[in-house]
Write a structure and sequence with these properties.
five-stranded antiparallel beta sheet, 18 strands, Jelly Rolls, globular, 344 residues, 2 domains, 7 helices, 13-stranded mixed beta sheet, alpha+beta
Amino acid sequence: MAMKEVMEKSGISNPRGLGITAEFSVDPANNITGYKSFRAGKFQFRRDEYFAYIETPKGTHMMSVDAFLRALMRDVAWGFFYGTVNFDPVFGTTNFYGEVDMFYGALNEAYVSEGRDYIERFKSDQLMNIFKQMISDWTNAGFDPFAAPRETGVPWGAKNGDNDGAVSRQRVTARRMVGMKGDTPLRSDKSGFPVNVMFHDVDQDQPEVHAEPGFEGEVSAFNLFGYLSRSDVTWNPSVCSVVKDSLFCPTTEEYILPVEHGNDRCEWFIQLSDEITWNIKDGSSGRPKAVVQMKPGDVACMPADIRHQGFSPKRSMLLVWENGSPKLPELIREGKAPTVAVQF
């Protein structure tokens, strides 16, 4: 099930009773830097040559602009994703499927204890429109916020062109499985997906499928490792196979996950190659909870009440297994479903 379908079917809305903000604006480009500024409700966004600035009624927050753009790119590409996308320990968004909270300090116990936290609620499509304009205007030619650092240019400096081809990539959302007739196609040199330099040792042979007559459109297989070796992005789990609410979302990872993801459901990780270290924090306060080091064959489940951020020293392959049921977030919030997948 694609994220859009989850959003449409969920019916989960406004658990905090917040009013919906519908005030948005875009200011002309700055005479010195050439970048536009953006406003969503009482949140104001501007950038200079090195930093992104987020101004709120409770204070101003700064982020290195490369970190901000990498996080913004995931929020845009994922449609606000499941649960919370923390750009860093202070700023982020929480998805309520049709509506979205944008927050400053609300999931940071130090900000909350001092009354410095701030939240506004928006219609998802309206906030997404502003975010898409921002990622387009703030991304210079040569910089790809989806790529590993060694694979792209730098985001610094005054406005210099754009890279709309990179920032408008569509996340893979197969309906049944990639490679099946009428579904998301396999990757190849011809379709513009060469094997990544870090995966030149990955076998590219495809399995042979001999279906009984009449079942040609029902039986299929593909080389998952070969498919992932041709990924042109990092930290972007895409839906590659679907069985009812069970979603297999494999991805390739290199360097640092640009966000701290706070899920609203349990999320299984299966390490397929190389190594990832995960820093685990409490989802509400941001307090450190654990460090999980995963090597090939390791399996871990991220509970629904934490946030996690991964570090991959070499390009690796990870299978993310999601339960796409739109009912889960509200069941967990009401205490009718556990925050962990297994209890011993």
